[in-house]
Design goal:
Layout: H1 2-16, H2 20-27, E1 28-30, E2 35-37, H3 49-70, H4 75-89
Antiparallel strand pairs: 1-2
Helix pairs in contact: 1-3, 3-4
């Protein structure tokens, strides 16, 4: 599962286990010759796209597979949501 490890799992694992990369991104503001420790960074919504984007794709794909397997008749609705997600993703 190398591909899975290198994707969202890697980001989440870094945050969950508080490795140095996660600590720096969450609690330090680095300046030219100095740094500031920040206890709470109020990151803009765009910061979270690296998490939200893959999760939305995984959930849409999983929904498609589940509804396909159980033949729920909802494939059209999920395909519409997938197209909507693709449209949103095309803007960034």
């Amino acid at each position: 599962m190398v591909d899975e490890y290198r994707s969202l799992y890697n980001f989440l694992s870094n945050d969950a286990h508080s490795n140095i990369q996660a600590l720096v991104s969450r609690h330090l503001e680095i300046h030219e010759n100095d740094f500031t420790v920040v206890y709470y960074k109020d990151n803009p919504l765009g910061y979270f796209l690296k998490y939200l984007n893959p999760v939305a794709g995984f959930l849409t794909d999983a929904s498609m597979r589940i509804h396909g397997f159980f033949k729920t008749g909802s494939i059209g609705e999920i395909e519409r949501l997938r197209q909507e997600l693709n449209e949103i993703q095309s803007h960034y």
